[in-house]
Amino acid sequence: MQSQAGVTENRGCLYRVPHRLREVNEKAYEPNVVSIGPYHYRKQHLMAMQVIKESFFWKIAAENNLNIVELKMTMRSLEPRIRKCYEEAPIHLHSDELLEMMLFDGCFIVQLIEGIYPVEDIFQVGRIQSDIRHDLLLLENQLPFFVLFELYRMMVPNAGEDVHHLARSALSFFKISHFPSPKTDIMHLLDLVHSCQHPSHLGIKKHEEFKANEAAATAVVQASTAVVVAAAKPNSQRSWKFIRSATELEGAGISFFGDHIEKMKDQNQGIEIMFDIMFTKDTKVLKIPTLQVNDWTESLFRNYKAYEQFFPRGKPTYFVDYVVFMDNLINTGKDVQLLCESGVIDNWLGDDEAVALMFNKLRDSIYMMSEDFYYADIFGRVNEHCKRKWNKWKAALKKDYFNTPWSLISFLAALVLLLLTLLQTIFSVLSYVKQ
């Protein structure tokens, strides 16, 4: 069902984080400075910003001659729809408190993303803007997008009925530039930002081709004999469950290359976003866009993944798949060190073991909702490479004996000496035979 603004009205779309995820790292789902919506409403450490939100509202209302009565009437007309959005975890605020919270929180967000907050405000100070931007992408810190849009239409002159302007402003606020035309069936800000985080069109096309080939191969196998089904091709669903860690893959002759997205785009490698990972048997190189790991990384990944846990079965879960991929590569700090040296990870935490622990725990209690694992093709080709013993022997030989130019020179010198000795022996034998 859609509102007149073109924003989808989804029942039960504003979720609480499942207990199995929250108990792994509760702090990752808690706002630091600002609460939005009812789930963290009036928590003690967020009360300072609550006062600021209210003062912002009254100041903007006075400066722009906003019709307070009309704003409140609009919120009251939306109350049944608002409560439906929280059906998965019902809210128990009475009507006036709920509508006041929606009004203050919604106007605060519209002011932020439209840049109409007062010049002398606190956002000129320190890191608080980053803190707020982070808090607005938490799963439990959301408002229905139709609430934001209705307030936007009443606060911004000539706003019109086009939801795309507000969506684009929101994406710009979150510093997301690589987006096509934003979707109109927006549930909340996290949903909007998440919808722009997906592989490139080329990557999705290649994945669709892989699935089609897999389906065709499986059909042939099943038509031949049921016995062979259990031993399907290396790239089948059986082969993507697991790959070795980065250091183990290096021991099998696979190297890693990482660079920033913008540089990889310029190199026409078919890599446009974080999810675009490439591996070919010819180069034996895993190309992975650089991931900056900082203080916010774990929390953002956890909230994106928690949101994907509510997707219907079959819908792509790119963040879950990406975490599974990285968790396979990273077991210890040595794996992180290798990936840092290769440009795959930009470690702002400083401690390689801390990054390894973060990825190892990110996968805890996560369900893979989609059987359509995005990196199945890469996993299959990597495993196929690793099964060939010659690749491991060649990699070990290179690492142990040809890891420096001097090693190669020494080998060549020894080889020449061996050949000369062999020739001398042959000539000696031939001279003896002639005598």
UniProtKB/TrEMBL annotation:
This is Uncharacterized protein. Keywords: Membrane, Transmembrane, Transmembrane helix. InterPro entries: DUF247_pln (IPR004158). It comes from the Eukaryota. The chain crosses the membrane at residues 406-433.
